[in-house]
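Q: Given only this backbone (57 positions), what sequence would you predict?
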């Protein structure tokens, strides 16, 4: 019976570990995706403002 309890605890630990790891990974991925979108938008706007400042080249 002790072995079964140990196996249950091990399964619970592994499940918790991987589920939290997946949560952090996915949150980081989506956050980076959002930051990358802002970065691209900022670069596009910088290019437009630079062309306007340079006399509309």
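A: Predicted residues:
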């Amino acid at each position: 019976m002790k072995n079964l309890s140990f196996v249950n605890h091990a399964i619970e630990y592994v499940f918790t570990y991987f589920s939290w790891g997946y949560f952090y990974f996915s949150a980081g991925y989506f956050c980076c995706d959002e930051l990358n979108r802002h970065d691209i938008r900022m670069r596009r706007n910088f290019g437009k403002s630079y062309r306007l400042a340079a006399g509309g080249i």
